[in-house]
Every structure is written in structure tokens, then in C-alpha cells.
Amino acid sequence: LGFSYRDVGLVLDLGYETSRVVPVYYGHALTHHGVELNYGGKDLTDYMAQLVPAITHRGTIEDLKEKRCFVATDFEGDLEKAKS
Asked: What is the pLDDT of residues 1-28, one digit of tens each?
């Protein structure tokens, strides 16, 4: 068969107001199986503003989000790094 997990995957489009997820199979985007969510970067900024009410300037929250937030590829390892 020659199947490899490198031949399949997901494309994530995380926008300001919406996010999209589309599966990819052997290099072909399966758009009819994709999902669009009405959540995006704006919603994350709003949520972070609620978590840190002392920061009132929206630009500061967006800057914090863009420079310090990331997706953990090794959650346990990143958690241990944060503790030390």
C-alpha cells in the first residue's frame, strides 16, 4: 500500500473571527469534510482580557497573545519547563 501518516493531516486556518479545519488525504484537501467555527483570534483576545482585567489596553492583550502564546506539542514537557 505504501501508506504513511505523513500522507494525511489537517490544515488549520485560524483567523480573526473564524477558524477552519480541513483534512488532507494524500495531498488532496477534503473540503467537503472541513469544519468552520465561529471562533477566532478575537475571541481568544477577549477571553484573555477577562483573565487579566488589570490590562485594559486591547493592543497590549493582543501583543501578549501574539508574542507569548503557543500550542504545546509536548504538553507535559512544556509544563515542567514552566515550573522551573
From this structure: 455 556 888 899 999 999 999 999 988 8
Q: How far is CA 55 from the centre of its chain?
A: 23
- The mean pLDDT value for 70-83 works out to 89
* Cell numbers found for residue 45: 483576545
Q: Which residue in 32, 39, 48 sits closest to 13, CA to CA?
A: 39
DSSP-based three-state secondary structure for 27:
coil
- Residue 37 contacts residue 19 (beta carbons within 8 Å): yes
Distance between CA atoms of 24 and 5, rounded to whole angstroms? 11
Residue carrying the nine cell digits 519547563: 81
All three cell numbers of 78, joined, read 512544556
**Secondary structure (3-state) at 32:** helix
